[in-house]
Amino acid sequence: xxxxxxxxxxxxxxxxxxxxxxxxxxxxxxxxxxxxxxxxxxxxxxxxxxxxxxxxxxxxxxxxxxxxxxxxxxxxxxxxxxxxxxxxxxxxxxxxxxxxxxxxxxxxxxxxxxxxxxxxxxxxxxxxxxxxxxxxxxxxxxxxxxxxxxxxxxxxxxxxxxxxxxxxxxxxxxxxxxxxxxxxxxxxxxxxxxxxxxxxxxxxxxxxxxxxxxxxxxxxxxxxxxxxxxxxxxxxxxxxxxxxxxxxxxxxxxxxx
Length: 257
Ligand SMILES: NC(=O)c1ccc[n+]([C@@H]2O[C@H](COP(=O)([O-])OP(=O)(O)OC[C@H]3O[C@@H](n4cnc5c(N)ncnc54)[C@H](O)[C@@H]3O)[C@@H](O)[C@H]2O)c1
Known about the structure:
Rossmann fold, 14% strand, globular, 8 helices, binds nicotinamide-adenine-dinucleotide
C-alpha cells in the first residue's frame, strides 16, 4: 500500500529539479500525478524517467504557462478529466531574477510576481472546490529559506517567497473549516538542473560548486531534489494531519550559516 493510493496530485514546475523529484515520489507512493510545466523537453524527460523508475506510474502532463491566470482553470480541468479528482496541489513553479532592487524593472517585477506568487493564488483558488470535496485536501507551496533570510541581489525573488509564506498562513486559516490543510516548504540550496546549467555556463569546477554550499548551512552541502520532495510529500500526507499554516524549513540548518 502506498501512502497516496487512490489520490491525485497536481505539481507545477513538475519538469524541474524539485518538481520532477516530487512527481516521482508521489508516484512511488501510489498517487496519480499531473505534472505542469512550460518546458516540453524537460517534461518529456521527467515523465519518461518516472515511468522507467516507477513501473505502472500514472502520470499525466500539461504544458502551460502558470503565469497566465486562465491556465489555472485549464490545469484543474485537465486533472479532473485525466483522474476524476484532486487531493493534493503542490505549487512549485518558480523563476529567478538577479536585479538589485534599486535597478528592478517593471517587466521583471510583473513576470516574477505572476509566476512565483499569483500562479499559487490562482491555482489554489481554482483547485479548492475539488480539494474541499476530497476529504483530505492539502496544498503545499514551495517557498524558500530566503523568505526569511535576507541577501543582496535577488530581492524580487525573495519578496515572492515571503509572500508565499503569508499566503500559506492566511489560506490555512480560511480553509481549515473546509478540511483543507495548507503548508509551505522552504528549501535551502538544492542542486537542480537549473544550477547545473548556470554553473556550466559560468565555467565553474565541481570543487567550486561544492564550496558554494559550504557556508550556506550547517550541513555544508547542497540538498538533492529528493531531499526536498520528502518534506513536500510528508506535509501532503495523512501523517501531517495536525499540521497546517506552517513553513517547514528544509535548509540543512541554513539559519546558522
Ligand atoms: N533549487 C534551489 O536551490 C531552491 C531553493 C529554494 C527554493 N526553490 C524553489 O523550488 C521551486 C523549484 O525549483 P527548482 O530548483 O526545482 O527549479 P527549476 O528551475 O529546476 O524548476 C522550476 C520549474 O518551473 C518551471 N516553470 C518556470 N516558469 C513556469 C511557468 N510560467 N509555467 C510553468 N512552469 C514554469 C520551469 O520550466 C522548471 O521546470 C521553485 O519555486 C524555487 O524557487 C529552489
